[in-house]
Fold these 4 entries.
Entry 1:
Amino acid sequence: MVTSLTSFYFVLIQIPEDKSLPKSMNETNYSQVTEFVLLGLSSSKEVQRFLFMIFSLLYLAILLGNFLIILTVTSEPRLHTPMYFLLANLSFIDICVASFATPKMISDLLVERKTISFEACLAQIFFVHLFTGSEMVILVSMAYDRYVAICKPLHYMTIMSRRVCITLVIISWCVGFIHTTSQLAFTVNLPFCGPNQVDSFFCDLPLVTKLACTDTYVVSLLIVADSGFLSLSSFLLLVVSYTVILITVRNRSSASMAKARSTLTAHITVVTLFFGPCIFIYVWPFSSYSIDKILAVFYTIFTPILNPVIYTLRNKEMKSAMSKLKGRYLKPGQVSGVIRNILFLDQVN
């Protein structure tokens, strides 16, 4: 799949031959680099073993937490509302964001030489921008949902119909696809013929372009402009939406304002944790690599695990639905009965 995806882009996007380059370079294949070396988070073996245990547990928690949200929303009829529909889609995207690079990063912590093929590197670039671009639009959609629910409650179900919710999700994936296609177009035909060490735990686009055997100043500006436009425009839309909501709530009763503040606190926390690192890395590209690594860990691991915590622990409806789900599938004595059956089979064998 990765190879066919890469071949598709090589055929689709062809850059004319650069006459300014030496003839010998034009006559050779630009993509002489067949693999990249990922330097990872640390070169210390002790630190790598510690990170292996920590990130393994965190990744398991990401999968369990977000799958639990999806299962709860789909199985509980009371949660078949626009807000929880968008929340379930956010959880699915969080699983994707955490899965495009984290499993390889965890396995690389156990090996000395961390390599990734050229095609797999391009695939990582494709998927990270697809998933993060989609998540930005989903977060904007959730802010719009809260705006309609609080500012126009009488028209909420009419405006946020099932068709509108599905359309918002489709738009989020379309925006992510357009964004990642434009980003990959800047990279797929760059000549990589020498340096191949990426100072990160995955193929981050700004770091990969710096390894090209040509001047990438214009390409870097285009990458920053593309990612910066999507990040800043989404962030500004979120700021405007939440500002209008807070102003509207302030003019209402204190009880409704307290409930809205609780909801908005969760949303704003998630937005800050997700957009902060993205804007810092792509809009301010002059930070040090060590800081970029920490921020990359934040939006690929910590944000996906904090989303289910923030959106569920402060939500009474979600906690009630999870308790009902637990009572349905884990009835008293059911687990102990399964354990007894397993022990009995072991004794028979």
Entry 2:
Amino acid sequence: MAAATGDPGLSKLQFAPFSSALDVGFWHELTQKKLNEYRLDEAPKDIKGYYYNGDSAGLPARLTLEFSAFDIYGEL
């Protein structure tokens, strides 16, 4: 509420651009899925990734996709 009244002690919420980091294992797993399971199916697939915004100032946040990106039902 204080930010709405112009309190100079609080900063505004800002968008933080991110860069993506695709692990080599992700590409391998995607290749295996495409060749053996998806084949010609071009429908969108659900995957999971990790967003991290704790690096030093000046470095962009990261969205990481690893080999486990396709195991969305393995973890709750």
Entry 3:
Amino acid sequence: MFQRKSQNIKYFLSLVPGKRRFGVYRFLPVFFCIGGVMEWVMINVRIGRETFYDVYRRKKSEREYQQKIEDGLIVLNQPVANKPVAK
């Protein structure tokens, strides 16, 4: 069973031109195009109301804000206890 699959894969890979000139690097344009398509999908395709980059930017902003709080650059307003007013 595995022998048959191995032969099928070898046959499929032999169909890609440029074996003698480029060797295994003949597959680089294919993976380059796949990467470009993935990037386009991540930028332009909305899942729900957000794209991947919307989520990335929001999470990055949240991490920066949290880091500023930890560094003491931002002080959060803490509620003051109600003091009784003397008359």
Entry 4:
Amino acid sequence: MCKPTLFDLMKMPRGGRLFLATCLGSLFVLVLYFQSITKPGKLLGSRNAPTIHQAGLELLAAHKSLQGRRELLEQACLSHTRKRRVLSPEDLKHLIVDDMHGLIYCYVPKVACTNWKRVLMVLTSDGRYTDPLAIPANEAHVAGNLRTLSEFSVTEINQRLRSYLKFIFVREPFERLVSAYRNKFTRRYNTAFHKRYGTKIIRRHRPNAKPEALEKGDDVTFPEFVQYLVDPRTQREEPFNEHWERVHSLCHPCLIHYDVVGKYETLEPDAQAVLRLAGVEGTLQFPTSGKTTRTDGHMAGRYFKHISPFYQKKLFNLYRMDFMLFNYSTPEYLRT
């Protein structure tokens, strides 16, 4: 089919030309909006932007560690991010919205996200839930229980990014990675992960694998998991699973201006600060963890002892941006 010429367009009825012009104009506005949403200082919670949480942000200034993290993150973004890109709805699927309290939370698996989802279910439930720990863990992860920013229109996304309190919780990258491995590949009940990822990892990275291992995928070793992560074919075939995806790829901290950067290592005081900023500190408490076998640096070091310096270096390069953006030191146990 031939492309329409200017002459053909001029012959179009006046109503048709107006409709076409309206469509083109709407598209142009949409493109301009998404370009502007990626510019700090305009739509992403800049100091000049109006906010319904101004009093809360003044309180935040009193929390020097949280304020310092924000500033370090901004500096790291300026130093290590060369290109800016347009945010898509896919980029916003990890950002949970609480319209009742003006909150946006980017959830990161293996960083207390189950308890944060429980808290947000209480805050958005209109009294249906009152105790976060009374909500089963699997229910907290049911799609549809909480709204994500990707579900809103462009105008609504813009308004919320500009005016809501935005927060994120992060964790030392390799401790989070070991925690994900332990949870998804060493627990017998995670058969879905064994079938989905374990069988592929064993087939690709275990020479002379036994038929039972190829069928069940339930005995992936940590060195095999590391080989899978650094294998260039892995990300060419599909994105990383959210449990081991890098935080900067899940939450885009150099494109979205987070007001609070909490850390797993200081979870309880940081969570309390967020609840205070949201104005709900007196109505509920963040659930404390009862785990006795939490993955810490010592445990991560034991797992990395079996990883060669070659693969340690490749893995560190893969997660380097998370180390830099969130001010985590290179682990002492690395032999790179």
